[in-house]
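Sample pair:
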Amino acid sequence: MFYEKHSHVFLLWNSGYEPTGEIRSLQKHTFTAAARQTRRMRKMFFHAVLSKDISWFDVNKSGEMNTRLTEDVNKINDGIGDKVGHLVQNVVCAVGGLVIGVAKGWQLALVILATSPVVAISNAICSKMIVSLTSKELSAYATAGAGAEEVLSSIRTVVAFGGQEKEIQRYTNNLVEAKKIGIKKAITSQLAAGVMYGFIYGSYALGFWYGSVLILGGNGYTIGDVLAVLFCIVVSSYCIGQAASHLEAFSVARGAAYQIFYTINQSSAINSYSTEGYKPDNIKGHIEFKNVHFCYPSRPKVQVLKGLNLKVKPGQTVALVGQSGCGKSTTVQLLQRMYDPQEGSV
């Protein structure tokens, strides 16, 4: 009765019923811990981005940072959150099913275990294909959404040049790509699920056939023993495949965490949060540029300032005049210390 009871528990877990007891408590605690950690990551990442100097933003796009703050952190949350609880649940279910099945009837258990690798591999492949196609589908919708956001934010320009039909066609083309991926995802997932359940039902057929042979052969088996061993081994094989699918989420979370923590740990030449340095009691307003050389990080081969020397006395009015690109705005930005010169001093 103990083994039969626990085999039914395994079946309930994988038939839509929610886990109870220690497993549910573990999932709750992992979800809470993941939410707290991702909240702290978002705060640290946003603080780190705001502390960067302007030269850092010249080579890193603000839209990319917004994506990392949302999507990448969500991937980390997915990897350290409920997936951990599901992995523990599937591992415990798989190990418990094997132990109970072998203890109840080792002969039948070994025969059914011969088909377990096929069931586990088919389940893992099915989950991986669905995750991959879902990612492509979301990327296609994200591309369409980004184009729509760009058009709506510049709607005056679009209307002024009569580009409504062109933008509608561009948005439609992006949706067509998402539609194709969605159809492919639906067909692939259903075919993969059919193959997976075909192997599972094949395991059932093998178990019932060999179980009847053991019962009729007088090996001490009853119909209850056969059912307990059969369901325990098959369900444990299914759980092994489910556990393998969660490993991909951990790999994705690890890749996303690398970029997040690289940005957090990256030091900035100009830290606006720093409290160190000389703090004058009063400022006279005497400005002097001494042999300043400067080029922007996004264009390191283009020299904007070449040995600039300039003195501005307090109260003096100075006008910077010249053609576009000669360094007028750059001089003001150096004065505001948005950048530091490569050579010389301000």
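Residues 1-18 have pLDDT under 50 and may be disordered.
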